[in-house]
Amino acid sequence: MIEEELKSDFCLEIDFEENSSEDPSRVFKAMSGLIDGIQLLDSSLGQTIDANIRTQLILHTIEVGSLKSWLRNIVEIADDENLEKLDLKVILGKYLVKAKHWTLEHLKDKDSLKDVNIKEVQEKLHEIAEETNLRKIPSYPLVKRKTLAEFYITTSESTSVLAENDSAKYVSSRGEIVLPKGHSIPDEIKEEMVTQETTTDETVLVLKVKKPDYLGRSKWIFRHGRHPIEAGIEDEKWLSQFQERKVIVYPGDCLKARVRTEIKKGYDGEDVSVRYDLIKVMEVIRADNATQSTLFPEDEKEL
Fold first, then answer.
1. Three-class SS of residue 140?
2. Which of 145, 186, 282, 297 is in the most buried spot, having the most CB atoms within 10 Å?
3. pTM of the model
């Protein structure tokens, strides 16, 4: 390995209200989250240049008064014939600084993460990567949409813990950016940001009960084959009978049910989420007779 120590130092700064009655740990929670987000972004930026590039953040120094964390990039590059033999130290340093600065600059005037055009960010970062001219064949992959969404979500949630008179900044050789006060992001918004398409399917399955919900509308935990799954029960009539003890189900029993499976796919082909719901419970199969607990619909005739 050839280890390149980049001089692309930057600073994350949090100005906080002294003697505030707000949770004092908020400053450190915000700083920790921002560092984690930057590290996630740096790793993906390096990969757009070459798959053999690995990035790591090093804490260079901490200043008090306002809390300032100066960080430095350490990058490992394997010898790779795909890269031009140029001054990698200087070029990669400028690339990481410029790409991070632009990515955060794009966020600062947005009132909501819904206003962030991730496709626009991908295209701009691709343009910045091409400017390096480091690849012999100028084919630079896009930063993954999921990575950018996770970076913006982490950044927003990190600054959301700050008090009203606190502020957070990103400072580099390209200038400083005051980061907007973020918000805690609901799971459905997180999924929406990274989902390209949603597919649903209904089929009859036999699921082994691991953990029922006796009181409310929480998800049950089942086992299908060797795989544990969580599923809601939308069969209101059956659920009422179960909660009124008119139907008895113990862990180890199985439910034969019509199950709806909803799969959300990301822009890079990965599964964003898989949701299961029992829309019709057809039968309770006791544990001592539940030898077909992993059957697929085509095996129903054996029940």
1. coil
2. 145
3. 0.69
